[in-house]
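Journal club prep, shared notes

We agreed each person brings one worked example of a sequence with its structure written out as tokens. Mine is CIDE-N domain-containing protein. I'm keeping it raw so we can talk through how to read the token line rather than staring at a rendered picture. Sequence first:
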Amino acid sequence: MDQNTENSQTGNGVPFKVVDLTREKRKGVVATTLQDLIVRARDKMGLPKDIPVKIVLEQDGTEVDDDEYFSTMERNTTLMVLINDQRWLPPGKLPRYQIIVDEPDSSGMHTKRNLGGLVERLQGDLTHISMLGGKDLELLSDMDPESLADIMPDKTFLEQLKEASGRFLSEKRQAQEAMELLKLYHASQ
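Then the structure, token by token:
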């Protein structure tokens, strides 16, 4: 008889580490069954009972969906609690913050998604800024870091991102103007 089965039968339970999608909230939970784990994880993570929950292995996203598989888990396995439609992503690919910008016009939803996605992508690797197009650079250079401060605590990052975006946008526009001048020059020859 393995240790987990023995613990389940004696009622002692097995200790697990439970994390949320961002991996920032970490809790210890002792459970005897998958349902027991879900109840205790909800309680520790402060999740309402009416929100759908899915348990996956933190390391690779394998879903733990029955007691048979759950009973094979080793002590102190790290499990991730996903809510609603959240999907597992590897570390480093996760959005740390969700940026929401209010836009009065009909293009607002598109702008919200674009800005949030751009900031998340660039937060992982700022060198990608050099590959952005004019519209993306304009969106970033026009953002207001002050209005995003309550959502994105790293105001310095937002200010540096805005400044760098403005620089790259200016350089792209200068390059385009230079190309147009060259075309005019060659056309006049």
